[in-house]
């Protein structure tokens, strides 16, 4: 599909975060609604991978409007998969119900190979029904990079367009405490967030666009130190999921800083890196106060709440920084991702 001549090419880096990915749904919906951008490449992990495939599949079917419909159809389908549990209007929709809590407790004592011997996964049916992987493999003009983690080596696996499949997408979102490893060509894979959340390097290595918009769900810092056993476990998991992304961004920021300070462009990689323009939409404010368990809450009210927050944040970002795309970075990656140097 040819890009509209007035559209500005943009690449996307979409983090994972379970149900919090509905925030990214809202961000993408606002970007598509405005109609100023085409999409060169999308790198996604877990829920970010689901959003990436939904956008690309819809875009291929009918441009921006179809992409919005595909995103909405996927997330409404996710809501339909949520356990039907009675909920009082006085109960926060972001809290897991009794049935979900019970399953979480069981997952701490039993593996998915014990709890789910038939390997049932309702998400598989939704993915198969929603996305046309054969068409994506052969016709998509958007370069996709879907991250998964090899369960035996920890190595990052990026599934690109020619390798896209139901299994590849499910592998990117495979939490090993809940789902069995997804085996592809004899190799077992877990959630991509263990190795990249998401991978940013393929967007400037393989895509023509100089602009990368990162939709970040995980906070860069926390206001309080966890004290309970559950809080500590959740924080360590979150830190593990985001460490690879932060390390990559710090390396990119340091390399850009070196080339800018020296003025020396040694080769194509350095020139390319220096020419990149980075942009950022953060979910920190919208997700502030939500417990870690809210990432597994998929009731419709909560997903719509996150979608609306994502739309509002994206609209604010577009008003403040939309004109920067194609011209300049709207963030200084060094200020955002490089820790300050303290000299004693």
Walkthrough of the structure:
It is a single chain. With 344 residues, the chain is an alpha/beta fold. Helices cover 48% and strands 14% of the residues. The chain has 13 helices and 8 strands. Strands 1, 2, 3, 4, 5, 6, 7 and 8 form an 8-stranded mixed sheet that branches. A hairpin with a 2-residue loop joins strand 5 (182-184) and strand 6 (187-191). It starts with 7 loop residues before the first strand and ends in a 7-residue tail after the last helix. The relative contact order is 0.18.
Overall helicity: 40-55%
- Per DSSP E runs of 2 or more residues, the count of β-strands stands at 8
Total count of helical runs of at least 4 residues: 13
Shape: globular
Which structural class matches the secondary elements? alpha/beta
Measured by DSSP, the beta-strand proportion falls in: 5-15%
Low-confidence segments, given as residue ranges, are 86-91
Sequence of secondary-structure elements: EHEHHHHHEEHEEHEHHEHHH
Q: Alpha-carbon distance between the termini?
A: 57 Å
Mean pLDDT score: 86
* Cα-atom radius of gyration: 20 Å
Q: Strand count, sense and closure of the main sheet?
A: 8 strands, mixed
